[in-house]
């Protein structure tokens, strides 16, 4: 039982540490998807299929703030 408690605690700590770097991306016509903050200068990374358009991409940030993103690259093989 101690193993499960340790695993649960470690997972909770990881989620808490990563939380501020996870964003909501609104770049497709269906439901929003997630992305991660890759660098302090505002580069976000997500799966290629998440972005279906090049304009009007919304980014939901922690604290209910929103921003607009611009596509600067993609890799359709990923």
Can you give the helix content as a percent range? 10-25%
For the biggest sheet, the summary is: 5 strands, antiparallel
Number of domains: 1
> Distance between termini?
39 Å
**Fold-level CATH name:** Thrombin, subunit H
What is the number of strand segments? 5
Spatial order of the strands forming the largest sheet: 3-2-1-4-5
The CATH superfamily title = Trypsin-like serine proteases
Number of DSSP helical runs: 1
Taken in chain order, the helices and strands follow as: HEEEEE
The CATH class: Mainly Beta
Q: Which CATH architecture is right?
A: Beta Barrel
Strand percentage, roughly? 25-35%
Shape: elongated
Question: Explain this structure to me?
Answer:
This protein has one helix and five strands; from the N terminus they run H-E-E-E-E-E. Helix content is 22%, strand content 26%. Strands 3-2-1-4-5 form a five-stranded antiparallel β-sheet, with no helix packed on it. It has one helix at residues 2-18; strands at residues 22-26, 33-37, 44-45, 57-60, 66-69. The protein has one domain: Trypsin-like serine proteases (Thrombin, subunit H). A hairpin with a 6-residue loop joins strand 2 (33-37) and strand 3 (44-45). With 78 residues, the protein is of the alpha+beta class.
